[in-house]
Write a structure and sequence with these properties.
The complex is a heterodimer of chains A (about 100) and B (about 425).
Chain A lengths: L2 E3 H15 L10 H6 L2 H4 L17 H12 L8 H5 L4 H12 L4
Chain B lengths: L2 E3 H10 L1 H5 L14 E5 L3 H13 L4 E5 L4 E3 L5 H4 L9 E3 L1 H6 L2 E3 L3 E5 L4 E4 L4 E3 L2 E4 L3 E3 L23 H12 L5 E5 L10 H16 L4 E5 L8 H11 L4 E4 L7 E5 L4 E4 L3 E3 L2 E4 L3 E3 L1 H5 L9 E2 L13 E3 L4 E2 L7 H19 L9 E10 L2 E11 L4 E3 L5 E2 L6 H23 L1
Parallel strand pairs in B: 2-3, 2-10, 3-6, 10-21, 12-13, 12-18, 13-14, 20-22
Antiparallel strand pairs in B: 4-5, 7-8, 8-9, 11-19, 15-16, 16-17, 23-24, 24-25, 24-26
Helix pairs in contact in B: 3-10, 3-11, 7-8
Classes of the chains: A mainly alpha (about 100), B alpha/beta (about 425).
């Protein structure tokens, strides 16, 4: 088990909570952590450097619908149907909104 | 020194919410500004960690320690053997890291002192850190198999780290006569890139089919089975019928001794000669992980799966191949996605915040032929203590897929390489 030094961390934690605003849902990864993993195939910021389609700057609703269609087997794909099955509705929404904001 | 568990820590943070609201007026109290993070290793894990730490919080002083000024990726190094790309295709550099404000130090880390929070370099220089990320990749267990010491690599290349070894194996294949035998022995589990041997066999088969079609490939595998086996066998039957003989542990596939001078591998019940031999030794975490005392008896580094902080040494994180992150495989994609989670956790922890919940993806493409790709994917969550595979997600390319499916996956394999290397090295 990882351990923290009580004396150092506790005062820090008191101040930090103020900076980060309300905590995210306890067991869900942040939208950034969820979306950044997309970039390994779809390129930095979602701008593809190769064969995969770019996913940056699309309307959030479109990304959300596409991911759900992959997940639910309504849309043909090679690998996305396998990946999309690993995400919940709430996670898909968070990813879609994050990616929509990456437009320059 | 008083210590508390993370669970207690999280409860304390939650309980402190009301108190914290009062300190909104002084947001400068807790910042990561000026914090020092030293990242060791410029590969898929380390280069991602350095880059994303700067992205998450530009105020963190990030130093990346990597001996080479150019980095050659292990992923796609099999395509060099197949003659699909020149070595230069694998080259990455750190110019964009410098542009982002990462301090590059091209030196070898020889010591990590977790108590003193200090890294020592081969030059004698020391670097102080608040947190350190160790991403050293793998090393080989030389001597674990009789005769397989480091001296053999000039004759029998492992080519399991991209670079001169890859070039040497390619040269040996070019010099081999038509009708010769390429003899390959994959390592026991766990090892870097589980589908790598299957892809290597495929790429060598592609080269031989083009230039030396009378040649054979013999595989001596000390395991029962290997990653994507069904898909590889299906592809081999289609593209390289009769060329590849695969022997697993039940068919005397375990190599007991390497006779480098005689170009022979000895098994329990016989010996096999090869004109070109590729013996890939058993593996362990990279050298610095052992010198720093970050590895356990398994030879790999136990870590907290939320933050990748070592469970042996506080403030030192281990990511990528060197870490124990099962069920995640040791792959470049895994290392990079772990680095992003680790960087996000470090940025939060340096601000005094509790680290967030991780989630990971791994997608691994292999080329059976230049126009024949296969893949395996997985999505991983966190159950509060460890990384878990999300049931129902991921899996292999469907067997019996049409040619156009495999053609697409070959194109996507190339697209993956271009995107991930751009995401990591710019």
């Amino acid at each position: 088990m990882n351990r923290f030094k009580l004396l150092i961390i506790l005062p820090a934690a008191l101040g930090a909570a103020a900076l980060s605003g309300p905590p995210a849902a306890a067991d869900m990864a942040s939208s950034a952590v969820l979306a950044h993993t997309c970039f390994s195939c779809h390129g930095p910021g979602g701008r593809s450097a190769g064969a995969m389609p770019s996913i940056d700057g699309k309307p959030a609703k479109l990304i959300e619908l596409n991911l759900k269609d992959f997940r639910d087997g309504k849309r043909e794909s090679t690998v996305m149907q396998r990946i999309a099955k690993g995400f919940t509705d709430v996670e898909i929404k968070a990813i879609s909104e994050y990616l929509a904001k990456t437009a320059k | 020194m008083s210590t508390i568990s993370r669970r207690t820590f999280n409860r304390l943070v939650a309980a402190s919410g009301a108190v914290a609201a009062a300190s909104l007026a002084a947001p400068g109290i807790v910042r990561a500004a000026g914090s020092r993070v030293v990242v060791i290793g410029g590969g898929f894990g380390g280069a991602t960690a350095a880059r994303y730490l700067k992205k998450f919080d530009p105020s963190i002083n990030v130093t990346l320690v990597e001996p080479s000024t150019t980095y050659l990726t292990c992923p796609f190094s099999n395509t060099i053997l197949g003659g699909l790309h020149p070595m230069s295709f694998l080259q990455q550099n750190f110019n964009s890291h410098k542009a982002l404000g990462v301090t590059m130090i091209h030196d070898l880390a020889v010591k990590v002192d977790a108590a003193k929070k200090q890294v020592t370099l081969a030059s004698g220089k020391t670097l102080a850190f608040d947190r350190c990320v160790v991403s050293p990749g793998i090393d080989f267990k030389w001597g674990a198999v009789k005769g397989a010491d480091q001296a053999i690599i000039e004759k029998i290349p492992h080519a399991w780290k991209a670079g001169p070894q890859t070039s040497l194996l390619r040269k040996q294949l070019e010099a081999m006569k038509d009708g010769g035998t390429f003899l390959i022995s994959p390592p026991p589990n766990p090892f870097r890139c589980p589908p790598g041997p299957g892809e290597r066999i495929s790429m060598v088969a592609h080269y031989l089919k083009q230039h030396k079609p009378k040649s054979k490939i013999v595989v001596l595998d000390p395991k029962k089975s290997f990653s994507k086996q069904g898909l590889f066998l299906e592809g081999w039957k289609k593209l390289y019928p009769g060329m590849i003989e695969y022997r697993n542990i039940d068919k005397d596939g375990t190599v007991r001794e390497v006779l480098a001078d005689k170009k022979t591998l000895i098994t329990d019940f016989g010996e096999v000669k090869g004109d070109v031999i590729n013996f890939i030794p058993p593996q362990k975490a990279g050298a610095i992980a052992h010198q720093a005392g970050l590895a356990d008896a398994s030879g790999w580094c136990p870590v907290d799966h939320r933050t990748f902080e070592s469970t042996i040494h506080e403030s030192v994180h281990v990511i990528g191949d060197a870490s124990i992150a099962s069920p995640m495989p040791k792959s470049g994609f895994s290392a990079s996605t772990q680095a992003k989670v680790c960087a996000a956790a470090i940025a939060e922890m340096l601000r005094g915040n509790a680290p967030g919940t991780p989630k990971f993806v791994n997608t691994c493409y292999s080329l059976v032929g230049p126009d024949y790709g296969i893949s395996v994917a997985a999505v991983y969550g966190f159950d509060g203590q460890k990384i878990v595979s999300i049931k129902g997600a991921g899996g292999l390319s469907p067997s019996g897929s049409a040619d156009d499916f495999h053609q697409r996956e070959a194109l996507y394999a190339d697209g993956w390489y271009r995107s991930i290397t751009k995401d990591i090295w710019g």
